[in-house]
Amino acid sequence: MIYGHGDDTYRYGEKVKVNFSSNIYQNADLTELKQYLTTRLDAIGNYPEPEPKELEELIAEKLEIPASMVMVTNGANEAIYLIAQLYRGWASVIPQPTYTEYADACRMFDHIISYERTDELNILPEDRIYWICNPDNPTGNVMLKQLLAYVIKKHPRYLHVIDQSYADYTLQPMLKPKELLDCYNVMILHSLSKKYCIPGLRLGYMTASPIIIERLRDIRQPWTVNTLAIEAGKWLIKNDPKVIPDIKDYIAEAQRLHDELQAIDGIMVMDTKTHYMLVNIDWATSLELKNWLIENHGILIRDASNFHGLDAHCFRVAAQSPEENNALINAIKEFKDGGEH
Description:
Blueprint: E1 18-19, H1 31-38, H2 53-63, E2 70-73, H3 75-86, E3 91-93, H4 101-108, E4 112-114, H5 118-121, E5 128-133, H6 145-154, E6 159-163, E7 186-191, H7 192-195, E8 204-207, H8 210-219, H9 227-239, H10 247-262, E9 267-269, E10 276-281, H11 286-297, E11 299-300, E12 302-303, E13 314-318, H12 322-338
Parallel strand pairs: 1-11, 3-4, 3-5, 5-6, 6-7
Antiparallel strand pairs: 2-8, 7-8, 9-10, 10-13, 12-13
Helix pairs in contact: 2-9, 3-4, 10-12
């Protein structure tokens, strides 16, 4: 679903003034990283490592796990498609609504897909994968860490893919790879792109048992992670800059946005444990609202109607600065009171 995601700023050019459509914080200060990368530009004249081993070793050291359990990928998406390819033809259980690429990748590699209906679970093959986005996108729900660990250990026959790409945007505790060293049926996806607000560099990694990692390496293409992304990753792991706001304050501001939107007649906002939230509007479609906001205020939201199980009245927004959040609230009120739709 290449054209079905948020952050489709490329469609609107300079019209976009404030971007609520991406779940990544938009006001990150990346000055130091950019300055460092200018000193590494000569490196683009050579091929990158076929596999970024040095970066993987740095990540492993930080996580206190063996480097054989880490594989750096071109964003979390490469990991998703590699897993689907490795387990071609398996059954995949994908609770909804959630990130659409799980199902897209599974369809590409002939998986039997279930959206977790009980009658389907009873007849699915034993060779199955459970895909769990935690925190979930687009809902912002977070499963209890203890519950996830219990399910993984109780069902060793099934594989579990736990996508923790938004782990840094919640106060809820997340699974740590070192806590699951004795589990060979779990793969955890991590996103440096989201942690450090660098989605344009496409940088993530997966942690899993060395056996799974080695099998995934056997089917991946070489040079999927480019030189500048590798250089950025090494600098970020070593320096760990804080580019998103203090998470406690950020979640509090997101809750304020949630409550202000909820107070608008005809709008319902789902509870969330993150900085982003799923919203339903009953007096217009999400696409009508999206088009009006971009044309009249330069504000971009995520039309969420293409998530499985959601309809044409659902959209998603991620909290930004208080001033930008206020602008969104006021613009939606204006649309309701007099905007053409």
